[in-house]
Design brief:
Elements: E1 15-22, E2 29-35, E3 38-43, E4 50-55, E5 60-66, E6 73-79, E7 82-87, E8 92-97, E9 102-107, E10 115-117, E11 122-125, E12 130-134, E13 141-146, E14 148-149, E15 152-153, E16 157-163, E17 166-171, E18 176-180, E19 187-192, E20 212-218, E21 223-228, E22 233-239
Length: 255
């Protein structure tokens, strides 16, 4: 894909697979969050939604908690010492400690899809081209940004993660992850992860809903972990990150 009029690269971003790990194929993965060798993971579906803590080295489940049967778990973000989790259509959010004890609930408007933290704010997606930034203490909406390339909105934003100054956004029913400038929503590149499907066990038929989903960044080792719904594998990627995007000019980011 060529650069836009501003010279803002939207080319494919190269990467290599450095780690290949087993993944519980019973999990309908919605969100991933990494902390010191542990992977926290939300798994969806009504009457089956749950939150897991897994040791990355051997994929042993260390802890888990079921969500209410009428809740469809969605995006997950680690902010400080708290895990924030969205529901899909129930407009309910949950805050857990790292021991997976429920601490509080919150409400939000619209659907909940992906969720991420930049260390200061939370940002959620709802399946459209819009991202909503939230206060992590009050969960009040602060601003909205539309993801776009030129004048073309990029919709179906799902799982989110921050890495190296970029907001990564998985596109639902796609094997692509967009690199987004979180200040103004401009597209900065793509990760084409379709080749990862060739590394899944041969001969295994995956259902249509078994799409790429789940992004977690290990900043210490500069590895991006990715998986999919009902995927039997998780991958650790070394990404050739483009230079971090510059902040937008004051007044240009609120929509």
């Amino acid at each position: 894909m060529p650069a836009n009029a501003d010279g803002y690269s939207v080319s494919a971003v190269s990467y290599e697979v450095l780690r290949e790990l087993p993944h519980d194929s019973k999990r309908f993965t919605q969100g991933l969050a990494f902390r010191e060798g542990r992977m926290f993971e939300s798994s969806g579906l009504y009457a089956q939604s749950a939150l897991f803590e897994t040791r990355l080295s051997d994929q042993q489940t260390l802890n888990q908690v079921a969500l209410p049967r009428q809740v469809f778990a969605e995006g997950l973000a680690l902010h400080g010492e708290r895990l924030h989790l969205l529901s899909w259509r129930e407009q309910r959010g949950f805050v857990f400690g790292l021991d997976l004890q429920l601490l509080s609930e919150f409400r939000f408007e619209g659907e909940g899809w992906g969720l991420a933290s930049d260390g200061r704010q939370l940002v959620r997606s709802d399946g459209s081209s819009w991202l909503t930034f939230m206060d992590p203490e009050t969960h009040r909406d602060l601003r909205r940004v539309q993801v776009h390339h030129g004048d073309r909105p990029i919709a179906q934003l799902n799982e989110l993660e921050f890495a190296r100054g970029w907001l990564l956004a998985n596109l639902w029913y796609s094997d692509q992850v967009a690199l987004v400038n979180p200040a103004d929503g401009r597209l900065g590149g793509w990760l084409d992860l379709k080749p990862l499907r060739q590394r899944l066990p041969q001969g295994r038929e995956l259902p249509q809903e078994a799409v790429l989903n789940g992004l977690a960044y290990d900043a210490e080792h500069d590895l991006l972990y990715v998986t999919g719904k009902w995927w039997p594998r998780m991958f650790g990627l070394r990404v050739d990150w483009p230079a971090a995007p510059a902040p937008a000019a004051a007044g240009s980011i609120d929509q």
